[in-house]
Amino acid sequence: MKSYQPDRSGHDFTFDPGLDIKLTGDPIGFSYGPGIFGPEVETRRLKDISESLMNPDCDGPDIVYSIAMDVGKAVHRELLKSMHLLYGVVTYAAGKLGTEPIRSQGHIHKVSPFSNWSTPEVYEIWSGEAIIYMQEYAGDSPGRCFAVYAGPGDVVVVPPYWVHATISVNPDRPLTFGAWCDREYGFVYDDVRKHKGIAWYPVFDGSDEIQWQVNPCYLKSELICKSPSDYSMLGIKKDKSIYRTFEEEPDTFLFVPSPQIKEDCWKEFVP
């Protein structure tokens, strides 16, 4: 596999998200261009996520990923607040977690006091290769399980109440993505950690290809590997960044803080 080292001093996205944001290094994170607001990044270290890995004692990068929640154009700041929308960006380190890929822990979104629902999330890949893993439930039976493979410009929607984790496919290249979230976002890890992670563990084989191993802490399930669905029923357009879609038609993403307005879409949802 060809080795890739990103130039973290400048823009390194293979898809234009419509925001003037650049990657930084040491530690990994973001810088914001003129007219862009954003917070200091939060980092997730290996020790923070080890409970949800197949091998909690594995080696890997100290900082696994960095998160900037509440990013956008200054001209939209008040509109985003009034709509209860929040845009977040995440970048992953290159490398591996033992034999596992760099990934998030797996969680469910907390029930938002704004909608009284666990809220959905709309992902968009900016650079790298991703798998958005999701399962219907965090209990002993995980229900339907999906591994949605996505590249730069692809959009993936996680429905309300589902467990999900974001996985970097290529160990030689960092993964960066943006996402629309509810402004009162919060993550619930308890049931996932009780089951020692998600129902299917992604692991690298000898050729650095992702294979899937069953987590024996769950009842039997089937994993469906697929490409992203067509989300036109949610108003999401192809070939346009989700931030630019918001700029042109802000109401498109009202279903994120208020998922009940698309209640019929979540029944038997296929991501």
Automatic annotation (TrEMBL):
Belongs to the archaeal-type GPI family. SUPFAM superfamilies: RmlC-like cupins. It comes from Parabacteroides goldsteinii. This is glucose-6-phosphate isomerase. Gene3D superfamilies: Jelly Rolls. The lineage of its organism: Bacteria, Pseudomonadati, Bacteroidota, Bacteroidia, Bacteroidales. GO terms for molecular function: glucose-6-phosphate isomerase activity. The keyword Lipoprotein does not apply. Pathway: Carbohydrate degradation; glycolysis; D-glyceraldehyde 3-phosphate and glycerone phosphate from D-glucose: step 2/4.
